[in-house]
Amino acid sequence: MSSRERILGRVRRALAEVTPDERPYEEAVGRDYLREHGGRTTEQTVELLAENLADYRAVVHRATDEEMPYLVMRLLARRGSEEVLVPPGLPPAWLAAADPVRIHDRAASTAQRLDRVGSVVTGCAVAIAETGTIVLDGSPDQGRRRISLIPDHHICVVRVPDQVVSSVPQAFERLDPARPLTWISGPSATSDIELDRVEGVHGPRTLEVILLS
User: Fold this and answer.
1) How deeply is 181 buried, as exposed, middle or buried, from its count of CB atoms within 10 A (0-12, 13-18, 19+)?
2) Does pTM surpass 0.85?
């Protein structure tokens, strides 16, 4: 008897004692896990988001509607970006004070062209406090997935507290699984076998998050 036959035989014997469950999958699989860990106020949830974003090496800023255009202007100027990629539904006021040339997201734009753009500014669909994760779903203020992955500098705006949730289960309740979801936890990074961290491998090297109140 081969090793394969021996393993499969053990599996068959183990399954023989399992009573078939004819219930629908939604009933057979328990969904009684915690929807969030601990009770937090809205302010505490936003603070937890900021803390976890920073822990993932994202740069966190805070702004009001009045401060927003000038903050974006300073961030782009500090980065030295001559061009900024703009999703079609981005609120014009966010870039009202910025100097860089606006490059609009078009289907004809190649990856090589987008790679020459210094920065991209987007909104988001939801932000998860417990994991420090921002989710984009391709809505007009976020654009297609590739515009948030190719430029080396991503400025992402989170409206607080409306777009902030505590946990992943709460985020799923707000998201449409049929949309192109991009989950972002800090700037793109990877590590080799010696744990040398390299940023900017699969997406932006720098992620700046503006918590807009």
Assistant:
1) middle
2) no
